[in-house]
Design a protein that fits this description.
Strand order of the largest sheet: 9-2-1-13-21
Largest sheet: 5 strands, parallel
Distance between the termini: 16 Å
Shape: globular
Number of domains: 3
CATH class of the largest domain: Alpha Beta
Bound molecules: flavin-adenine dinucleotide
CATH architecture of the largest domain: 3-Layer(bba) Sandwich
Radius of gyration: 23 Å
């Protein structure tokens, strides 16, 4: 039996490992952390469970092609209820709450009531989102692999792409800010800022399209349940998951991979290695001699890393859920060289297992690469102090808005880019890539031409990345291993 080592037990690594093991390989996952899942995780503090990733999942709708991958890997199954919240986001503006609903018709009607002057732009938004509602990420096989059930681009998918294409090109050439600025109503502009300003507008419209199509639901149990399901599938197939096992180097002899060396100097042999660790950090650390493939140099040069500071709060009082509409701060929150002028939160209190009774469990992300600031703070011994200062500012702002929270904040937990780096080894703690104006939609090849038996999976392979890309590129990497050894992919 040919041996495959997968470096990293995040979603892409678990996916690669499951498909490779099912196809007849002897697969070992080496995961540096004490649990699998990588960026797809949640954590518990003082009785509150903070959902770190899965708020809305692309592919939760059984009608989508990606859904089959979530099911084949055990991340989802028929028994997992998927909750489709009606509201997606909301902003307090003057005396109103302006909302984005899952149903774009409802959103458009609501926007029109608020700002009849924006009729033309609202109709445009409606048409754009509807066009993208028919559009989904296709699942296909790589060239040259033998598969039991070949998956090619469906004719019906192609037919759906053709009418969307001119819109896609246009929306890829403007930023989200360019798009939202076309609305005259400032409140509507703010409500539509669900994606950072500098991203291409296609990201905003595709997100709204996904929701309007009835996808992007919350599967009960969130990140932890999905990962647990994948780990169980892998182990039931006979795979080996080594936790607390960090790979130090990939061993290469005569232009072919022969295995890996672990941090404790143990050597493990393999016929193929799938690198499912975040790609840039992997290139920096895992190779004694840099790989010469041009696509890897392009990936490194072109990647703009999405990075955040993640805030979690457990409060013993009832607050709106599932979202707390964004509100303007009287006193902006300065942190790590950034300024937050508003706050908004997810409140998962209504989801099973997240919060004690009559309590709120809040999460929010401040987007921006503040890695250097936190790194410097750590070096100067000011890291905890800076984190506490930020926590104090957030608590003050929350208590000012919700006086019932005063003296009831039981926990506030802040994950900085350094936290993400520590737990996942990712470059700057990054978990997706920024897809800006003019950035090409690329799928990187995922294998090395110069060294045989090395494959790559993970969110960097198809920017902007995310969970669907992680599971899909894991499957692709397993197919590449099958192709190398002329094995049927299962
Ligand atoms: C706050 C937040 C919100 C998000 N929201 C969404 C969302 O709404 N929708 C969406 O689609 N995605 C979202 N994501 C992104 C998504 O979680 C990631 O893109 C995805 O989980 C990446 O999976 P991956 O397998 O490519 O990488 P990772 O999750 O980074 O997995 C890599 C694994 O490799 C391990 N590793 C690293 N180095 C080594 C080594 N040397 N040896 C052994 N193991 C190693 C790490 O510990 C980790 O487990 C979000 C992420 C965050 C943090």
């Amino acid at each position: 039996m040919k041996k495959v080592i997968v470096i990293g037990g995040g979603i892409s690594g678990l996916s690669a490992a499951i498909y490779a093991q099912r196809s007849g390989f002897d697969v070992t996952i080496c995961e540096q952390h004490s649990m699998a899942g990588g960026m797809c995780t949640s954590w518990k503090r003082k009785g509150y469970l903070f959902e770190g990733t899965v708020h809305w999942l692309t592919g939760s709708n059984p009608k989508t092609e990606i859904n089959q991958l979530w099911k084949e890997t055990g991340a989802l199954n028929e028994q997992v209820p998927v909750i489709l919240h009606e509201q997606f986001s909301a902003v307090e503006w003057e005396d109103k709450i302006i909302r984005i609903y899952r149903d774009i018709e409802k959103t458009a009607k609501h926007f029109l009531e608020i700002s009849p002057d924006d009729k033309k732009q609202i109709n445009k938004l409606l048409k754009d989102v509807k066009a993208f509602s028919d559009f989904e990420m296709p699942v296909t096989d790589i060239k040259g692999v033998k598969t039991q059930h070949p998956k090619r681009m469906k004719f019906s998918t192609l037919l759906k792409i053709i009418p969307v294409f001119p819109r896609l090109v246009k929306l890829s050439r403007m930023t989200c800010k360019d798009y939202t600025d076309k609305f005259t109503h400032i409140g509507i502009q703010k409500t539509l800022k669900i994606i950072p300003d500098e991203y291409a507008a296609v990201a905003l419209i595709a997100t709204l399209g996904t929701l309007n199509a009835g996808d992007g639901g919350y599967p009960e149990g969130g990140s932890l349940a999905m990962v647990e399901g994948m780990v169980k599938t892998f182990k039931d197939l006979g795979g080996t998951l080594l936790l607390n096992t960090k790979v130090k180097k990939i061993r290469i002899e005569n232009k072919a991979v022969v295995g890996v060396t672990l941090n404790n100097e143990t050597e493990l042999n393999a016929d193929a290695v799938i690198v499912a660790q975040e790609t840039i950090a992997a290139l920096d650390n895992l190779f004694d001699t840099p790989l010469q493939d041009k696509w890897l140099a392009d990936l490194r040069k072109n990647t703009k890393s999405a990075v955040c500071t993640f805030i979690c709060m457990g409060i013993r009082c009832v607050l709106p859920e599932p979202i707390i509409p964004a509100w303007e701060l009287d006193e902006p929150i300065e942190h790590a060289g950034m300024t937050e002028t508003q706050l908004c939160f997810y409140n998962n209190a209504g989801h099973k297992g997240y919060a004690p009774k009559d309590s709120a469990v809040l999460t929010t992300a401040f987007m921006g690469d503040t890695y250097d600031f936190w790194k410097k703070a750590k070096e100067k011994g000011r890291y905890e102090e800076e984190k506490q200062a930020l926590a104090d500012k957030i608590c003050r702002a929350v208590c000012k808005k919700f006086p019932q929270a005063q003296d009831n904040i039981e926990v506030i937990d802040i994950a900085t880019p350094l936290t993400y780096e520590r737990y996942t080894g990712a470059y700057h703690g990054s978990w997706m890539s920024i897809s800006g104006v003019g950035d090409k939609m690329t799928t990187y090849p995922g294998f090395s031409k110069s060294i045989s038996g090395i494959y790559f999976a993970g969110h960097r392979m198809m920017p902007p990345g995310g969970l669907p890309v992680a599971i899909y590129t894991g499957r692709m990497a397993a197919q590449m291993v099958c192709r190398q050894f002329k094995v049927m992919f299962r």
